[in-house]
């Protein structure tokens, strides 16, 4: 089968190769992958910026396809069903945080950028009926991350004023859609005006270019935010602290800008703010997210679909932050 592996000896960092098809073991399903979506962790693996990297591992955390074979102890009624995969493994029993055994599909174990993948049966869910394969592939990791950040960690309520930073990436796009559908007043930030224009078309109240003096502008126009969802951190954190309303929540699911040099700690306690971390989500979070997406007919924003032999172009587009929504590989 064709697959895309991590290859640090290749100048592209990845390689399209042939590999033997996997065989499902007891309790596993074999899925013929139709579409697989990129996440930033795939690009970080390519750049050597992710822990425990191993050459030869098939990348990819998100995939959608058809069950082609089942292992022992798996019900055969799954055969032929269109499914997507929960990319998280071994979350554990504590809904508050993942266990020490938690891993994500695509590193250190083989992922979805392949014609076939075998996964545990409890990782497989029927694709929401209103989504096509490309949209189904775009949903799992980013949709789960956004859903948990907003609901469990952010305690989103109807009428909340919400700020989603970095609009353009998959999680931020989902967070904006989810918050809007929940009845929140949503604002976004981005470094690209065309992305802000798209967000305004979606129905957000305001869009701010973070390459300008946007914090003061947002404060003047919106007055502050009850919930802020962020993936950048770095020295932007103090601006978010300024923008948070008293009693507000700042949920952080990434740190692409690294650690802040200093934090305005006095404002955190004086404004009684909660700064909360969030990473993907539990199995119950995933199931709730799928039900919510199906009930509200949420459709992921797919930026572009690439054939497998153009995977480098897809990775480069993500590296340069030129996408709006998800980048998808067409597997067959």
From TrEMBL:
Entry superkingdom: Bacteria
Pfam families reported in the protein's UniProt record: ADH_N, ADH_zinc_N
Residue stretches making up the Enoyl reductase (ER) domain: 9-329
GO terms assigned for molecular function: oxidoreductase activity
UniProt-recorded name of the protein: NADPH:quinone reductase
Originating organism: Cyclobacterium lianum
């Amino acid at each position: 089968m064709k697959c895309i592996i991590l290859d640090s000896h290749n100048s592209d960092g990845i390689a399209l190769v042939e590999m033997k098809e996997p065989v499902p073991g007891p309790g596993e399903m074999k899925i013929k992958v139709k579409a697989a979506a990129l996440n930033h962790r795939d690009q970080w693996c390519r750049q050597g910026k992710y822990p425990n990297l191993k050459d030869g591992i098939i990348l990819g955390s998100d995939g959608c396809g058809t069950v082609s074979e089942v292992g022992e102890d798996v019900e055969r009624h799954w055969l032929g069903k269109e499914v997507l995969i929960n990319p998280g493994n071994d979350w554990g029993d504590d809904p508050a945080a993942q266990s020490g055994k938690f891993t994500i599909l695509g590193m250190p174990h083989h992922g979805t950028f392949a014609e076939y993948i075998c996964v545990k049966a409890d990782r497989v869910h029927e694709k929401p009926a209103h989504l096509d394969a490309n949209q189904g592939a775009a949903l799992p990791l980013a949709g789960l991350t956004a859903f948990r950040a907003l609901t469990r960690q952010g305690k989103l309520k109807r009428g909340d004023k919400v700020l989603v930073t970095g609009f353009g990436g998959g999680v931020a796009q989902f967070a904006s859609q989810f918050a809007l559908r929940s009845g929140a007043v949503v604002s976004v930030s981005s470094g690209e005006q065309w992305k802000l224009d798209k967000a305004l078309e979606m129905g957000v109240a305001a869009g701010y270019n973070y390459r300008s003096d946007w914090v003061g502008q947002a404060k003047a126009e919106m007055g502050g935010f009850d919930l802020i969802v962020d993936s950048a951190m770095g020295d932007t954190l103090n601006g978010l602290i300024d923008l948070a309303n008293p009693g507000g929540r700042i949920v952080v699911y990434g740190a692409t800008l690294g650690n802040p040099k200093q934090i305005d700690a006095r404002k955190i306690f004086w404004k009684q703010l909660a700064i909360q971390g969030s990473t993907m989500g539990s199995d119950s979070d995933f199931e709730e997210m799928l039900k919510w997406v199906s009930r509200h007919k949420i459709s992921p924003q797919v930026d572009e679909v690439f054939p497998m032999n153009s995977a480098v172009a897809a990775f480069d587009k993500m590296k340069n932050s030129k996408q709006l929504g998800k980048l998808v590989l067409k597997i067959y």
